[in-house]
């Protein structure tokens, strides 16, 4: 089969042996594969990421000198099964799969490990237990976005955003755009998006953002509707006084019961939920300094460098920080069906398609945010320019 192989940050399109599915595995013909920001990072910073992976307990992440086939956002069709499979679907069935396989007891990240070649290729091996049929005639292009949209869905779920809360999305690259789509699918009524790029702001609007801000001109924090928003710590203290004044008016009723009841329900004043989707040094500290009190900050952007924050700022505002990664199989399945049922439309994210010979150009193009968001690879295409 033909595949795009990267070694020491250089791509070449090579003829590789046809993959052989192992026990419990399935061979797919690749229909489409998305280029992910993780692929861009892995190409040029593989060793740093691998060292970080080792520190967290995974020692099979790709190294720069290895020959690796990238690609973990894909859709495909069933070709054949390995031994020990239940053979749930006929050959030719369109499917997607979580990008993870297991050799013996050892898991490997598809497209990010030399032990699990990815879908920048005509064929890819997946785990049968992690494979799901594509429902409702969903296109191969949209099905291939199940993986990045599942990342966004996981982030939105972890953010626990109420429909009446304001959600801020800082950074409107592919993951920020996906988060916007999923926030609107979850019924969040007010989504404020912020990005310096005019093209990305345009795409944020297309994805459903209610307010889109150029932070070079306007502050996203003042762009949302007021609706009793807590602006500073004095507002929290004033709320405490107002609440106690009200409760003290009720004679012979222990006022502290009201607080205990609120604590049991985890109720009380809250700020917005902020999704950090930039992943560069300094942005997190900027958010902590600018965000309203009682905000919840969900860190989705992957910063690969050391960074500094001022914890006292977050403490004084009682800001909650959450870091998210990936998704579980249930979230992956639910995302697939949200796409297939039309609850999420990822069309604005897809801005180009190339064949295997166009991957080098696609990577170069993606460095400029004004040109593209998500470029797909079609192994059968001869296109060299997205």
From TrEMBL:
<dbReference type="InterPro" id="IPR020843">
    <property type="entry name" value="ER"/>
</dbReference>
<dbReference type="InterPro" id="IPR002328">
    <property type="entry name" value="ADH_Zn_CS"/>
</dbReference>
<dbReference type="InterPro" id="IPR013149">
    <property type="entry name" value="ADH-like_C"/>
</dbReference>
<feature type="domain" description="Enoyl reductase (ER)">
    <location>
        <begin position="4"/>
        <end position="377"/>
    </location>
</feature>
<keyword id="KW-0560">Oxidoreductase</keyword>
<dbReference type="Pfam" id="PF08240">
    <property type="entry name" value="ADH_N"/>
</dbReference>
<keyword id="KW-0862">Zinc</keyword>
<keyword id="KW-0479">Metal-binding</keyword>
<dbReference type="Pfam" id="PF00107">
    <property type="entry name" value="ADH_zinc_N"/>
</dbReference>
<comment type="similarity">
    <text>Belongs to the zinc-containing alcohol dehydrogenase family.</text>
</comment>
<protein>
    <submittedName>
        <fullName>Zinc-binding dehydrogenase</fullName>
    </submittedName>
</protein>
<dbReference type="InterPro" id="IPR013154">
    <property type="entry name" value="ADH-like_N"/>
</dbReference>
């Amino acid at each position: 089969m033909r595949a795009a192989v990267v070694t020491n940050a250089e791509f070449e399109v090579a003829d590789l042996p046809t993959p052989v599915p192992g026990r419990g595995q399935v061979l797919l013909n690749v229909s489409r594969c998305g280029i992910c920001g993780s692929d861009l990072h892995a190409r040029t910073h593989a060793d740093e990421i691998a060292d970080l992976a080792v520190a967290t307990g995974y020692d099979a992440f790709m190294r720069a000198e290895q020959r690796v086939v990238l690609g973990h956002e894909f859709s495909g069709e069933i070709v054949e099964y390995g031994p020990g499979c239940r053979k749930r679907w006929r050959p030719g069935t369109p499917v997607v799969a979580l990008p993870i396989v297991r050799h013996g007891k050892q898991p490997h990240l598809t497209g990010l490990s030399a032990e699990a070649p990815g879908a920048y290729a005509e064929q890819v091996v997946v785990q049968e237990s992690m494979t799901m049929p594509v429902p409702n005639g969903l296109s191969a292009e949209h099905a291939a976005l199940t993986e990045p949209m599942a990342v966004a869905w996981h982030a939105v779920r972890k953010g626990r955003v109420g429909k009446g809360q304001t959600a801020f999305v800082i950074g409107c690259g592919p993951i920020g755009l996906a988060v916007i789509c999923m926030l609107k699918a979850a019924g969040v009524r007010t989504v404020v998006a912020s990005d310096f790029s005019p093209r990305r702001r345009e795409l944020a609007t297309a994805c459903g953002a209610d307010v889109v801000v150029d932070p070079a001109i306007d502050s996203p924090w003042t762009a949302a509707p007021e609706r009793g928003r807590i602006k500073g710590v004095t507002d929290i203290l004033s709320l405490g006084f107002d609440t106690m004044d009200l409760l003290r008016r009720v004679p012979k009723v222990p006022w502290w019961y009201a607080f205990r009841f609120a604590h049991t329900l985890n109720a009380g004043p809250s700020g917005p939920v902020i999704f950090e989707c930039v992943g560069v040094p300094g942005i997190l500290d900027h958010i902590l300094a600018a965000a309203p009190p009682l905000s919840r900050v969900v860190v989705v952007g992957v910063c690969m460098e050391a960074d500094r924050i001022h914890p006292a700022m977050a403490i004084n505002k009682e800001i909650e920080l959450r870091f998210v990664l990936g998704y579980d199989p249930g979230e992956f399945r639910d995302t697939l069906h949200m796409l297939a049922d039309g609850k999420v439309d990822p069309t604005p994210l897809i801005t180009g398609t190339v064949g295997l010979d166009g991957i080098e150009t696609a990577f170069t193009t993606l460095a400029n945010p004004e040109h593209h968001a998500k470029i797909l690879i079609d192994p059968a295409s001869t296109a060299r320019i997205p």
